[in-house]
Amino acid sequence: MSNSIPLRGFGTFQADSSVYPPGTAKKGVLTALKAGYRHIDTAYAYSSGEIEREVGEAIRESGIPREDLFVVTKLHNTFHAPEDVQVGIDFSLRNLGLDYVDLYLMHNPYAYAKGPDFSTLRRPDGSGKPVIDLELSRKYPETWKAMAALIPAGKTPLGVSNFNILKTKRLIEETGIVPTANQVEMNPYFPQFELLDFCKANGIQVIAHCPLGGALSPSVTNREGPGPLEDPVIKSIAIAHGKTAAQIILAWLTGWGICVVPKSADPMRIESNFDMLFPLSKEEGAQIANLVGPRGELGMRNLDNRHHIGFDIFDEHVDQPA
C-alpha cells in the first residue's frame, strides 16, 4: 500500500454517460497506466459502480503490480448511516476486484435517502432530483467516525471530498480525526486559496478535481463561458514553454503541492496531460494566481448543487442544511 499520494492522478468521472459507450473508462485507464499514471481516482457514484468495475478490469489487464498503484474511491451518499459505511466500502472493493484501496473518501457531506440495494430515491415530481436524508446530512461527523472504525481493520487511509473550511473544522473538532486528504474543485478560475491554506496548516493533502475547469453533470454546473483552458494569459505562457494550456495549468497546481485528477477519454490528451511536473517562473505563477484576484476573490465555483439538493454545502457561515 502506498504511503503518499502521487501528484499526478487520472480521473474517471464521465459528465454524461450517454455520450460515452461502455468501456470508455476502461480504455482511458489503460491508456493512463501505459502513459505512466499510477494514481487512479474513481467513485461508486460514477454510474452506480460501473466505472469502478471498468477501473478494476483495466488494472487487472494492465499487468502492473497492485503495490505500484494508488487507487482512490469514495463512499456514496446512500451509505452515510454508520451501519452502512462498511457495506459501502465492501460494494466498492467488490466492484474494483481489489482487497483494499489506497484512499477512501466521503464523497459529499450530505446523504441521500436510500432505496432498494442502496439505490438513490428520487423525488416524485419527475425532476430526477434525489431525496435528501436531512438528518443524516447534518450528522456527517457520525459517518466520518464510522469510516474511521475501518482503520484498525487495515482497510485504508481516509479523506473527504467537497468539504469547505467550516465543515472540515467541525469534522475535526467533533471527532479528533483529521482527514488525510480533501478532494475539492480547484483550478486557476477557482483557486480556493483560503481552503488550501487551511488544509496545509492542518496537514490535509488537497486533491484538485476539475483542475482544468471541469466537465460536470448539467444539473450541478454553474459557470457559463470559457474556462481556464481558453484564458489568454495561460495560452501565452503555454506558447512560451512549448506546452499545452492544460499542461501549464496542471504544472501550476502541482507546483503548489496539489494533487490533480484530470480526466479525458482522448488518448492523446491523456498522454499529453501526464507531462505536468515542470517549473514555471515566479512571474508566470503569479500571473496565473492573479487571474481572478490576489486571493481568488473573483473566482466562480463551477460545482453548484444548491438547486439539485436544496441547500448550499459550501456556505462558510451556516453549516447547511441548518
Automatic annotation (TrEMBL):
**InterPro entries in the record, alphabetically?**
AKR, Aldo/ket_reductase_CS, NAD(P)_OxRdtase_dom_sf, NADP_OxRdtase_dom
Q: What is the lineage of its organism?
A: Eukaryota, Fungi, Dikarya, Ascomycota, Pezizomycotina
Give the protein's recorded name.
Answer: Aldo/keto reductase
Q: Where is the NADP-dependent oxidoreductase domain?
A: 9-290
**PANTHER family under this entry?**
2,5-DIKETO-D-GLUCONIC ACID REDUCTASE, NADP-DEPENDENT OXIDOREDUCTASE DOMAIN-CONTAINING PROTEIN
Record carries keyword Protease:
no
Keyword set includes Isomerase:
no
Keyword terms: NADP, Oxidoreductase
Homology family: Belongs to the aldo/keto reductase family.
Residues recorded as binding substrate, renumbered to this chain, are 107
Q: Name one Pfam family in it.
A: Aldo_ket_red
Tell me which SUPFAM superfamilies the record gives.
Answer: NAD(P)-linked oxidoreductase (SSF51430)
Which residues carry the site feature described as Lowers pKa of active site Tyr? 74
Q: Where is the active site?
A: 46
Question: What's one GO MF term for it?
Answer: oxidoreductase activity, acting on the CH-OH group of donors, NAD or NADP as acceptor
